[in-house]
Amino acid sequence: MDDAGVDGRRRDRPVADDDAIEPPTGFRERAVASDAGVYDAFATEGPDAWRRAADLLDWERPYERVLDDGDPPFYEWFPDGRLNAAVNCVDRHLDERRNQLAIRWFGKRGERRSYTYLDLHREVNALAAGLRELGVEEDDVVTLYLPMVPELPVAMLACARIGAPHNVVFAGLSAEALATRLDAADSSYLITCDGYYRREDAFNQKSKADNARLRADGDLAATVVVDRLGDALDVSLGADEHAYESLVDAHDGETVEPVARDATDLLFVMYTSGTTGRPKGVEHATGGYLAHVAWTTRNVLDVRPSDTYWCAADIGWITGHSYGVYGPLSVGTTTVLYEGSPDYPDRDRVWDLIERNAVSVFYTSPTAIRSFMKWGAEYPDRHDLSSIRLLGTVGESITPKAWRWYRDHVGGGEAPIVDTWWQTETGAIALATLPGITPMKPGRVGPPLPGIDARVVDEDGEPVDPGEPGYLTIGSPWPGMLRGLREGDERYRREYWVEAEDGWRYRTGDGATVDEDGYVTILGRVDDVINVRAQRFNTAELESAIVGVEGVTEAAVVGDDDGDVVAYVTTRSDVEPGEPLRTAIGEELAREVGDLARADRIVFTPDLPKTRSGKIMRRLLEDIARGEEFGDVSALRNPEVVGEIESAVRSE
Ligand code: WTA
Fold first, then answer.
1. Strands (E), 475-572
2. In the structure, how many helices (H) and strands (E) does the chain have?
3. FRET partner for 529 with CA separation of 20 to 30 A, picked from 24, 352, 394, 500?
């Protein structure tokens, strides 16, 4: 690795683009990362440069080696070091900030709960002792199926304390999805809750968990149930089911000796949609992951202990893991946890929370920003958001228009925005500007971070010219990278790696361009994964659920410009496409995949466009959904269908 730039350019030189926006002087002067020499330092030091990240952590046994790359693509970061993630997120802060708030939680019904670092320490220890009592041992995988309640981060940290990897399943996913993930992770412990509120209604989560249990192949040894709803929902507990509160009460005041883990030991597994219908179990190692997350929380998100920081992502996904829990707590800040939706009870909710808590760093997705824009600037404008110092975005590309809106109406026209590119697999931010150093370009994520060897290449692995589309790849390992897949080494190698002449290259699955200054623009996925409401779904997963509906013959799913899901559906000739069928499709998607997997638009069409070999032309369907020009369709087996589909889309 001779340079951190995609195109061999140094990042400490001014960019050529006149439209680039320099970091504001006031911000630059106080930024965590303010020395442009960091780009050069990483470029010259190679992997050793990542000591800066690892040295942000407390090690039980200090590491001597930074990277073992003897058996690519199986890389080991800080392989001889030992540490405990919960100690790094909780215990080590007790001396300096035991009474500082670690978590400020806001519930859907206006409830509030706060945890100081001392409170967090007490509850994490009590739960860790409780889990031990239930039989959880080091390396047992514990599945967590909880909404955004404080018990979720507490449970993650309790698992980490005893060396039991966690497997968080997003609470909105279906019983079927939970069953698959319990089996795939070989997990026999579950922590869930009675239910939670969806707007006004109490929703029964426990019954979903019970269904999953019936569907799963393996047996559960023990289930812990958090009481979220109190009297609003009574659930009865079976013989091997335990109330969270009683478990924690029974062990209150106990301390559990943290288990020192090898840096390469598993911290957690997180299932994500891959290129096949079955989700992949992405495994993250303890040391490299935590080091990379801590370093980026400080240097990219500019977070320090004195901040009140809010990452709005759900902990059920990787963003919530890395920047809602491990990042903020490892650096010792106060993190906001919000259970509700941004427009309930009203559209002032988010701005009201920022104002009341003096949030200084706010991190969300372009999907959310698009909603805020749709609702109108009057909502943020009537709040005092002057506490905001930095804004972040993640999950999809943000348009320059949305970028400017975000900056003007949330960032007071002043705050820098970091557009951060990363993935479940990268563990932590890989491409972004350093907000006190690197100029911003609205709509472009920016250059790779120091130490990230990102390259945009063509089919043959050759770098593309500026402005030309190519594949985003990473040419050398980085600390936050997945250590493997639950499905085994072979699948890991096949899914992600290609061996090139100059070494192994990680394939991100994203298309991208790079400009003259080395700034990357993400074009979207090049595989069968679509990003919906900032979450990843596999098209086959959605399509197979739709085809499961009686009367449906074929389905093709694409994403449109708004990040919405458009489903093209063909039906049997004796079936009337109409409202009842739409409802049935919606219900089946929710049941098989989960709440977030709804189809925003369902277009009934007599046929789907196919190539001569019978492959559905998704790209064409995407262009139609987006109202874009598309090329010559004469090579299709059924070109006549295109006109019909277009008119069906228009008449919706
Ligand atoms: C997309 C979320 C454009 C990308 C952290 C990636 C982005 C996928 C950005 C990973 C961004 C993430 N600009 N696209 N700033 N950040 N993506 O695993 O397609 O849920 O491959 O991780 O989201 O989604 P995942």
1. 484-485, 497-500, 503-514, 520-525, 529-532, 535-538, 552-559, 565-571
2. 22, 31
3. 500
Q: What is the pLDDT of residue 536?
A: 80
Vertex 126, ends 125 and 130: CA angle to 5°?
115
pLDDT of 455-486, one tens digit each? 999 988 999 999 998 999 999 999 999 999 99
Instruction: Flag whether 510 is in a domain.
Output: no
Residues 6+ apart with CB under 8 A from 242: 130, 134, 222, 223, 224, 225
421 is a domain residue = yes
Per-residue CA distances from 306 to 97, 100, 295, 330 (Å): 10, 9, 17, 13
Question: Rounded to whole angstroms, how far apart are CA atoms 38 and 23?
Answer: 16
Q: For residue 299, how far is its CA from the centre of ligand 1 (angstroms)?
A: 19
Domain of 182, CATH number, reads: 3.40.50.980
CATH number where 603 lies: 3.30.300.30
Give the tens place of pLDDT for each residue, 356-404. Answer: 999 999 999 988 998 899 899 999 999 999 999 999 999 988 989 999 9
Q: CA dist 600 to 191, 329, 507, 564, 619, Å? A: 32, 36, 30, 6, 18
Residue 9: its pLDDT value, please?
A: 47
- Of 217, 243, 259, the position where a domain reaches its end is 259
Domain count, the chain: 3
Residues 439 and 326 in one domain: yes
CA torsion 62-65-71-74 (nearest 10°) is 40
- 164 with 275, same domain: the answer is no
Omega into 577 within 30° of 0, i.e. cis? no
In this structure, are 205 and 268 located in the same domain? no
- Is 337 within 8 Å of 150 (Cβ atoms)? yes
Dist CA 10 CA 409 (whole Å): 33
pLDDT value of residue 7: 43
Q: Which of 421, 472, 530 to mutate to test the pocket of ligand 1 (most atoms within 8 A of CB)?
A: 421
pLDDT along the chain (652 residues), means of 10: 42 71 96 96 97 98 98 98 98 98 95 97 98 98 98 99 97 91 97 90 93 93 96 89 98 98 98 74 98 98 98 96 98 97 93 98 92 93 98 92 96 98 97 97 96 94 92 97 97 94 93 94 82 77 88 88 87 88 93 85 90 74 86 77 87 76
Question: Which domain range does residue 265 map to?
Answer: 25-84+261-451
This prediction's pTM:
0.89
In angstroms, rounded to a whole number, what is the distance separating the alpha carbons of residues 370 and 258? 43
- Pocket residues for ligand 1 (CB within 6 Å)? 272, 317-319, 394-397, 419-424, 445, 508-510, 522, 525, 531, 536
What are the CA-CA distances from residue 525 to residues 477, 512, 528 (Å)?
A: 21, 9, 7
Asked if residue 17 belongs to a domain, the reply is: no
Q: Please state the three-class secondary structure of 382-439 as a single string.
A: CCCCCCCCEEEEECCCCCHHHHHHHHHHCCCCCCCEEEEECCCCCCCCCECCCCCCCC
Atom of ligand 1 nearest to the CA of 319: 5
Residue ID of nearest Cα to ligand 1 atom 12? 395
